[in-house]
Amino acid sequence: MRHSTRRGLALVTTMTAAALALSACSGGSEPASSESGGDEDFTPITDISLQLQWLPQAQFAGYYAALDQGYFEDEGFDNVEIVPSGGDIVPQDALAAGDVDFAVAWVPKVLGTIESAGVELTDIAQVFQASGTTQVSWPASGITSVADFEGKAIGSWGFGNEWEIFAAMAADGLDASSVSITTQGFDMTALLDGSVDAAQAMTYNELALVLETVNPATGNLYTLDDLNVIYYEDTEGAMLQDAIWADTERLADDPAYADAAVRFLKAVIKGWVYARDNVEEAADISYQASVDGNGYPVGPVHQLWQMNEVNKLIWTGGTFGLIDDAAWKKTVDGALSAVNEQGLNLITTEPPASAYSNDYIQQAIDELADEDLTLDGTYTPIDVTLTEGGQ
What fold characterizes domain 133-234? Predict the structure, then answer.
């Protein structure tokens, strides 16, 4: 490992020169090579900030690994701030307000903000290529598919996480008003105490919380055989999740920002490659970031499970970070069709063409062509044995 896993959020290095010309295109602005070696007419940005959508954990391992391994430093950033959120900060709002330079957020949530608030944001890298959302229930509930939701108490955290539920119901022709959406906490207590019939859970987080709990009937940890699990990725309600968002207007008008976006993505790519190829080390980096950053109190084994599951969502066969047109369309169609229990839509019109662009991530990939990096293929999971409490 090149740098200590206890590295702080500030990095100091010499600044690398980079030049980037811009021209307008239908998916946002189109960057020219930041390795052209020409005379830049701007001062490269050396301080950068990234807003996460939750607390430090292996969901964001690639960013922490890039920091820990010096990849941001390699790209000329003197200072990198990774800003966590415990639900108190909405990533796309922080980005639109200019509080941060980039943000990680789910696509449907940002599409809702783009329409409701009239902001202009661009998805410049689609990190998660598959949905990690599930709905977990006990076999006695009889809930084995979305069609069984009607008349049931379905748990969700809210904050926009519920829209996959409604998109999946709409695809099955179900009436959302027939479902009682119950707000659950950011743990699985609602399932364990019977407050909901089916609880929302991410494959990489809350699902593991159940599997780290002792089944009082057996004295052993719960297993997947004890649960009914609906994976939204297997439904028409699946939507694109963790993406890196940038300010659309800044990309078009500020060549230094567009240049920084490409350099930032180059570091991020290498960070996620590191997290794929060094699973245990990346999980440890994430655990240390959680400890240092007062993150949600989960143990190192839980972080290892999370790292393993997150890699499954990222490395699904395509090239890292590229936005698949079909997946984007499915997300938009789901967002347009989703109607909540109060009859409200997530969005009512197609998002603008500038809502996503592959230009920046493609340039970053091209500029890394000479490095020995495998940026496609499917992740081969490791075996992770969960322990009580994930400790």
Answer: D-Maltodextrin-Binding Protein; domain 2 (3.40.190)
Q: What are the tens digits of pLDDT across the range 182-240?
A: 999 989 999 999 999 999 999 999 999 999 999 999 999 999 999 999 999 999 999 99
Query: What is the residue type of 8?
Result: G
Taking CA atoms, 363 is separated from 25, 86, 259, 366, in Å, by: 14, 33, 10, 5
The residues that bridge with 230 in the sheet, in sequence order, are 135
> d(Cα 178, Cα 200) in Å, to the nearest integer?
18
pLDDT of residue 35: 52
Q: Which residue has the tokens 């055989």?
A: 225
DSSP E strand boundaries for the chain:
22-25, 28-31, 47-51, 79-83, 102-106, 121-126, 133-137, 153-156, 180-183, 198-202, 228-231, 242-247, 316-317, 377-378
Share of the chain above pLDDT 90, in %: 83
The CATH number for 22-130+239-390, chosen from 3.40.190.10, 3.20.20.140, 3.30.70.1290, 3.90.1010.10, is: 3.40.190.10
Angle at 360 (CA atoms; ends 92, 354), nearest 5 degrees: 55
The model carries a pTM of 0.90
The type of residue at 218 is: T
Q: Which of 4, 56, 13 is nearest to 294 (CA)?
A: 56
User: Chain-wide mean pLDDT for the chain?
Assistant: 90
Per domain, the residue ranges of the chain are 22-130+239-390, 133-234
Q: How far apart are CA 271 and CA 61, in angstroms?
A: 8
Amino acid 88: pLDDT: 85
**Dist CA 214 CA 219 (whole Å):** 6
Q: How far apart are CA 274 and CA 380, in angstroms?
A: 14
Long-range CB contacts for residues 8-11, cutoff 8 Å, separation at least 24:
9/67, 9/80, 9/81, 9/82, 10/79, 10/80, 10/81, 11/67, 11/70, 11/72, 11/73, 11/77, 11/78, 11/79, 11/80
Q: How confident is the model at residue 86 (pLDDT cuts 50, 70, 90)?
A: confident
How many CB atoms are closer than 10 A to CB 48? 24
